[in-house]
Amino acid sequence: MTRRRTILYKLSLNSIKHVIERNYMSFKKLFKISVFPNLLDPILYLVAMGIGLAGFVGNVESMSYFMFVTSGLVAATGMNAATNEATTNAFIQMRVEKTYYAISMTPVNLQDIVIGQAVWAGVRSTIFGSLFLIIAAFLGAVQSWLVIAIPLVLFLNGLLFGLLGLIFTIIVPNRDYLNYYVMLIIQPLYMFSDTFFPISSMPKWLRPYSWFSPLYHAVNVCRSLMIGSITNVGWNILWMLLVITLLGIIPVRLVHKKLVY
């Protein structure tokens, strides 16, 4: 029995790998087209806030405002890339192109497809977040060799938002509802997760709620690593791993109950 379960588990991992490979092949064809829109938004914010506004703002939490914003945008770029994959791209594959249905006709089951999609969202987060990190390095926003660990943080951040986005994508009745997810969840997280201003500047009663923001923890880790500090890095990563574990169960259970071809 143990041997059989082990084999089934390996087969499941193999199926997930095939889903990731399929997404990668599709991504390669559109990579040049997708780079610009994924990096334009954080670059515009960097110019407007990190460069334009920095001249009117002093140091924030013992670092320049430019450094503060840039480090926050690294994590936010990964979040946006993962969200786009887990919402718009996943919805098209589920409901429009019927890709999920086609793949499920093979030995790959729906659970493998969903987890594979979430992992791929983590990969996209790593790719685009790392590209923005390179831009940040050229602009002098990197102060420590600890940044080599940031791609791993970006992957965890993307996996978390990939799972979160897939949960919503699976249950929405049509594509228009995805706008509510972005406007009501992603955008507020983007603005109020220590990205553009410190949580300490918010009202005291509101500060504890930031602890529940996934992006807040990713921003803290990226910022610490970019300035060469490991303070609270472990706790933030542990929080992300715990939430990933809890979220991972939900889309796997929802996909059979809610997804109708």
TrEMBL record:
A GO CC term assigned to this protein in UniProt: ATP-binding cassette (ABC) transporter complex
Localization (cell): Cell membrane; Membrane
Membrane-crossing segments per the record: 35-57, 63-79, 127-147, 154-172, 178-197, 237-255
The keyword DNA-binding belongs to this UniProt entry's keyword annotation: no
Keyword Transferase: no
PROSITE patterns in alphabetical order: ABC_TM2
One GO molecular-function entry: ABC-type transporter activity
Domain ABC transmembrane type-2: 33-258
Keywords of the record: Cell membrane, Membrane, Transmembrane, Transmembrane helix, Transport
Domain of life: Bacteria
Bilayer disposition of the protein: Multi-pass membrane protein
Protein family according to the UniProt entry: Belongs to the ABC-2 integral membrane protein family.
Protein name in the entry: Transport permease protein
